[in-house]
Design a protein that fits this description.
19 helices; seven-stranded parallel sheet; globular; about 30% helix
Length: about 625
């Protein structure tokens, strides 16, 4: 039943009336009578008998004869619900898009027969010693599992298309998940070129109800063997699954914001385990979770040798190391030290584009008193004030109220200064520094996909960097402190991921490509960037988390709600003996958060205990809800 109450998270038996016998197939949507109400449900299985000793009710209606829920996806949904202490109903809402009756009624003709796809040439995979063998294993119908570290300048979409083509050549299907629609467009073009027409569909929440459901049905009916998409595609019903792949698994867009909050990487890896399929986890960076796959032997590493890495990497230099400080004493505090300015000037003189990565969008997203440096806060809600433009009026980023008559509560000063500089202010400053050079911004308001290869400045926020024709002559990574000083377990990992993604767009050093990171060269993320060695940093990060008892070395659950409700749930839960309860810490408003930590071997017991406790509270209709998250991205 599609009832997201924890104490009802189990299948129920119903009788099938004779008039619905032909329509009531496993996987169809149905309506049943439950507790006097007509509710939606899924027909999971047809059997000859029931273990229920009481009287059984009849199915009321088969909503549609289309069996949209496959047995493989149903089993996966149950496993995901158990892993994340959630209910099957919640996971099925993520797995199967809402029904679109008009699309279901469209005439359906079986796809025309197409010639078998030949095995692809390894091509770019030859830069990685284990790459050709990985493709051969997919073509042979085996289940290779790899963690791939992409080289700078790598056309990752084409490499993924190669892996998909190898899987299809072996007679099986594939599911590939990327973080956003910009990556999806790039992958769609590459997969289309590798497979030809009619062999794949794109699945994304941005498609709209009709197009999304049409693509979903094409996969469910077996019309196409390959589904690519954003996290909406992680449950795509592909027959004879041979490969699941995720690109840039460290991107937080892979985390589902709806209960039970599954992560696309974990869903796909669970799917690979259940379906005995191959797996590919790739990116320029590497997460601690991907490193754990290697250290446990679940996956193998696919990387280039150091000679190839050196030949493909741009010249990378930090602005805050000792040689630079000797030449430019202000390099440690300047926002654009002389090394970065020189790199940009030289690239522009060579008629090459320059990419400038700025962590914050907007103009001045944070301001402070010009006299005493006190952060400027909204007098109504205490939210941070921001300036939208050079001539704009300060306004609150939380409540939106304008603070035209702002006066500092500490000193009474009325002048404001920049505390944090955004992408638009950076574009304004660099436009003055390099007069006559075209300046473009790429961020929330407008995300550029590609730019020409001529001289120009591109100011982009992380994740919005466009590809330049021929590569950038210089990439400047500014305001590194904004990434490295975040109160977050993944601050260093996330900073390196964003830097590598931007630096990968630069030309190789032999072609004049330079990268300048405005940060201390002794920092571990900066060292990993300088050597282009994401694996070293991931191993270091995982070792530190193992020592300190943080995910993914352990399994951790977050319990958030009003203090009495949190205490009630934890008192109800029969936690494993090894469980450590940490907290409470303030969450938002009047809510608080408690963390529960267990060894990875006891992860299933923890999820079961929390789900059972939630079910007990649900059965007695506890008023205050509690939010359960297993392995949340943020612990602070």
């Amino acid at each position: 039943m599609d009832v997201p109450l924890a104490h009802l998270d189990r299948p129920f038996d119903y009788l099938v009336p004779a008039e619905l016998d032909e329509l009531a197939a496993p996987g169809t949507r149905v309506k049943v009578r439950f507790a006097g109400q007509l509710v939606d449900g899924w027909l999971l299985e047809r059997t000859d008998g029931s273990g229920h000793t009481g009287r059984l009710a009849y199915l009321e209606k088969v909503v549609s004869p289309e069996p949209v829920l496959s047995s493989e996806v149903a089993g996966l949904a149950r496993a995901v619900a158990d892993r994340y202490a959630g209910s099957l109903a919640d996971v099925l809402r993520l797995a199967v898009p809402p029904r679109h009756a008009r699309v279901e009624k469209e005439p359906h003709e079986p796809p025309p027969l197409v010639d078998p796809l030949p095995a692809p040439e390894p091509a770019g995979w030859r830069d990685y010693p284990a790459g050709p063998a990985y493709l051969r294993a997919l073509t042979d119908g085996r289940a290779p599992r790899a963690v791939w570290s992409a080289l700078p300048g790598e056309d990752w979409a084409v490499r993924y298309a190669d892996a998909v083509a190898a899987t299809v050549a072996g007679g099986r299907g594939a599911v590939v998940v990327v973080a956003d629609n910009r990556d999806l467009d790039r992958l769609d073009a590459a997969v289309g070129a590798a497979l030809g027409p009619g062999r794949h569909v794109s699945l994304s929440a941005a498609l709209g109800p009709a197009r999304r459901y049409r693509a979903f049905l094409a996969a469910r009916r077996g019309d196409v063997p390959v589904v690519i998409g954003t996290r909406a595609a992680m449950f795509a019903p592909v027959a004879r699954l041979g490969l699941v792949a995720v690109w840039d698994d460290g991107d937080d867009l892979h985390a589902e914001p709806r209960a039970p909050y599954p992560h696309a990487r974990e869903v796909l890896l669970t799917r690979a385990q259940l379906a005995e399929a191959g797996a590919l986890v790739g990116g320029y960076a590497r997460t601690a979770e991907a490193q754990l796959l290697l250290e446990t032997g679940w996956a193998r590493e696919v990387v280039a040798d150091r000679g190839t890495v050196r030949s493909r990497t741009p010249a990378i230099a930090p602005a805050g190391d000792d040689p630079q400080l000797a030449r430019d004493p202000g390099a440690a505090t300047a926002r654009l030290p002389s090394l970065a300015w020189t790199a940009a000037r030289d690239a522009l003189r060579a008629d090459l584009p320059v990419l400038v990565q700025v962590p914050r969008r907007g103009y001045l997203p944070s301001v402070s008193c010009a006299d005493c440096r006190t952060p400027a806060r909204c007098p109504h809600c205490a939210g941070p004030l921001a300036l939208p433009s050079a001539t704009g009026t300060p306004a609150c980023r939380w409540c939106g109220r304008v603070a035209a008559a702002y006066a500092c509560p500490e000193c009474g000063g009325r002048r404001l200064r920049a505390a944090v500089t955004g992408a638009r202010r950076t574009a304004e400053e660099l436009g003055r520094a390099f007069p006559g050079v075209p300046v473009r911004t790429s961020g929330r308001e407008e995300v550029l996909t590609a730019v020409s290869g001529g001289a120009g400045l591109v100011i982009a926020t992380p994740g919005a960097e466009p590809v330049a024709e021929g590569g950038y002559g210089a990439v400047l990574l500014l305001d590194s402190w904004a990434l490295l000083t975040r109160a977050d377990l993944r601050a260093g990992e996330e900073a390196l991921r964003r830097w590598l993604a931007a630096a990968a767009l630069a030309r190789p050093a032999g072609a004049g490509g330079r990268v300048v990171v405005v940060a201390d060269g002794a920092l571990a993320p900066v060292q990993a960037l300088l050597r282009w060695d994401a694996g070293w940093f991931a191993a270091r990060e995982l070792a530190e988390r193992r020592e300190l008892g943080f995910p993914p070395a352990v399994r951790m659950a977050s319990v958030t709600g009003l203090p009495a409700a949190v205490a009630d749930l934890l008192a109800e839960a029969r936690l494993p003996a090894e469980a450590e309860v940490l907290g409470p810490v303030p969450a938002d408003g009047e809510r608080e958060r408690m963390l529960v930590r267990v060894p990875r071997a006891r992860a299933g017991a923890l999820a079961d205990a929390l789900h059972t406790a939630a079910g007990a509270r649900s059965a007695r209709k506890a008023a205050d809800p509690v939010r359960l998250q297993v392995d949340p991205l943020s612990l602070f």
